[in-house]
């Protein structure tokens, strides 16, 4: 598990491009046969991936967590952006298809990831936060019929925003949030831009009570997303390629524009779970 410390906005103003990338960019995710984890001191979030190939992969605590098992004091959110796979949670098997997810509660002792087809492996994207109580483990599907242990994303949690004229026509699909999937502090969801639109989270905002991580995907090899971060009057940028993630401190904006449409997963942790608790930044105030 890679460890990264928190950073001050006063220091970030002096960072070079390379230093920005070292502190905030997460590369090398979704390597077949590997689990990749990055532990950030910013709200203690863990961002990572599990990409099982020929063999199953078990998520363990490692020495860094000083825990008996990964979810001893943590909750875990998962969204699959690859082929069909399974997640076995304390002996119970869940089939997780493309763009389906899971919430796994604190106290879960054994988590095992497998792919249905090693030639088209599942790509399980992971966000984990410290937890203080156990919430129910559930499978999350954007569409389908509700059944025991399965949550279907509610229509009111599929929000269409923006317009093609403003180059930001997009749909936000909220997976983990109060009123749908109970958690201690973790929230996750996915935003898909429509063809012809390239801007996300614009006008932009900050939310001082929680931080956020973005995973950008559905980006062709010759395309990119320009991710914008920093204080509203001290903005910086990081060039993002396919299936790369970026850490956003609570004091930073988090927005992007791509060379073409793309999709991204957002994950938030902190003291407040109110999705609309944002401090908006007017376009004319960005520098």
Automatic annotation (TrEMBL):
One of its GO terms (molecular function) is 4-deoxy-L-threo-5-hexosulose-uronate ketol-isomerase activity. The keyword Zinc applies. It catalyses: 5-dehydro-4-deoxy-D-glucuronate = 3-deoxy-D-glycero-2,5-hexodiulosonate. Pathway: Glycan metabolism; pectin degradation; 2-dehydro-3-deoxy-D-gluconate from pectin: step 4/5. GO terms for biological process: D-galacturonate catabolic process; D-glucuronate catabolic process; pectin catabolic process. InterPro entries: KduI, KduI/IolB_isomerase, KduI_N, RmlC-like_jellyroll, RmlC_Cupin_sf. Its EC number is 5.3.1.17. Its cofactor is Zn(2+). Zn(2+) binds at residues 205, 207, 212, 254. Gene3D superfamilies: Jelly Rolls, pectin degrading enzyme 5-keto 4- deoxyuronate isomerase, domain 1. The keyword Chloroplast does not apply. It is an enzyme of class 5 (isomerase). Binds 1 zinc ion per subunit. Keywords: Isomerase, Metal-binding, Zinc. Belongs to the KduI family. Catalyzes the isomerization of 5-dehydro-4-deoxy-D-glucuronate to 3-deoxy-D-glycero-2,5-hexodiulosonate. NCBIfam families: PRK00924.1 (NF002091). This is 4-deoxy-L-threo-5-hexosulose-uronate ketol-isomerase.
């Amino acid at each position: 598990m890679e460890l990264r410390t928190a950073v001050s906005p006063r220091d970030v103003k002096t960072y070079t491009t390379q230093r920005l990338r070292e502190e905030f960019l997460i590369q090398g995710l979704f390597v077949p046969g590997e689990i990749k984890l990055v532990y950030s001191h910013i709200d203690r979030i863990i961002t990572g991936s599990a990409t099982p190939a020929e063999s199953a992969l078990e998520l363990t605590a490692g020495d860094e967590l000083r825990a008996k098992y990964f979810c001893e004091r943590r909750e875990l959110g998962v969204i699959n952006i690859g082929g069909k796979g399974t997640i076995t949670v304390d002996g119970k098997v869940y089939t997780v298809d493309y763009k389906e997810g899971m919430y796994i509660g604190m106290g879960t002792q054994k988590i095992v990831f497998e792919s249905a087809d090693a030639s088209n492996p599942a790509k399980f994207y992971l966000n984990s936060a410290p937890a203080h109580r156990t919430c129910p483990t559930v499978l999350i599907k954007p569409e389908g019929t509700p059944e025991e242990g399965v949550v279907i994303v509610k229509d009111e949690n599929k929000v269409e925003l923006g317009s093609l004229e403003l180059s930001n026509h997009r749909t936000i699909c909220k997976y983990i949030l109060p009123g749908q999937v109970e958690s201690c502090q973790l929230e996750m969801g996915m935003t898909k831009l429509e063809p012809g639109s390239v801007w996300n989270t614009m006008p932009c905002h900050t939310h001082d009570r929680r931080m956020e991580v973005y995973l950008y995907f559905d980006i062709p090899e010759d395309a990119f997303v320009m991710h914008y971060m920093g204080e509203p009057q001290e903005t910086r940028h990081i060039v993002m390629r396919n299936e790369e993630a970026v850490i956003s401190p609570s004091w930073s904006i988090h927005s992007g524009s791509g060379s073409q449409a793309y999709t991204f997963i957002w994950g938030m942790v902190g003291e407040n779970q109110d999705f609309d608790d944002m401090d908006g930044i007017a376009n004319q105030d960005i520098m």
